[in-house]
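Appendix B. Raw example, untouched.
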Amino acid sequence: MKQIAHFRYTLLAAAVALLLPLLLPSGTLATEVLVFALAALGCNLLLGYTGLMSFGQGIFFGVGSYTAGVVLLQLKLALLPALALAALGGALVALLVGWFSIRQRGTYFVMLTLAFAQMFYFLAYTMKDVTGGDNGLLDIPRPPLALFGLTLLPTTSSWQYYTVVAILFVLVFWLLQRVVDSVLGKTLLAVRENEARASALGYDVRLLKLAAFVISGAVTGLAGGLHAMMTGVAPLSNIEYHTSEAILVMTVIGGTGNLFASVLGASFYVLVGNWLSTLWPRWLMLLGLLLIAVSLYMQKGLFGLAMKIIDAVRGNKGASAQAATATATKEKHS
């Protein structure tokens, strides 16, 4: 039971990956949920565990998309090496962005990440030979999951590709959960709670923040690479500011400081957004109202709401059990 409790969030993430094919008719939509859940996981590591509100997540997502697109189109690499390079590209760019951004805090840190987001957007727009400019990279292939030349899983259909993404999603979630449960994760929480005290205790705060940035960039870059293979396109919009905004909103909706909360937030954003878009072309206005409601009444996000409901049910059960015990005792003595 202790082992199950220890891995409960990883098991919940795996349960989501198993349930999506049963609940959704579209393999592409289910894949999109897991892809953005990965991106939100990377954002949560920065915001929820390190206290850094970054508007640069779209940079890493876009770099991952372009890296996967270029190596698949130009070098004809297999799926796993292409994704590894997408994660590496995201990590290297995160190292650069983080190196400069962590030198400031608060509003100035946010402004720096915004400035980098704009800079990389126009860089991608200008480098048309590499990124395709305004058109993006088109006809990105989707190779099968293979190891040592042996095909393990085909990716021809959307549900076959979903299976590959689901395996990678659960694996990355497990690895990130190991990170946040480790000494590094606990130290990041100490930095989030009181940076000055963590520094006074001898921790290298800048190095810790940079480590969080690099891990976050690698996970988000991986998500970008998976997204490019899912759609067959690496568009310019993947690297623009609005992608950063969407990833940040997913993280906040789910709740910060818990990895499974990011899965809830990404699922809510993608699925509700998809549903609202069928009702009204200007569905973002409706989503904005939902976000206002979340900000006003669910400040700990969907995960916080779920925990409140669970605690309330446990409280009622506990009260019922105590009342039953008191009644039984009274009857015994009467």
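End of appendix B.
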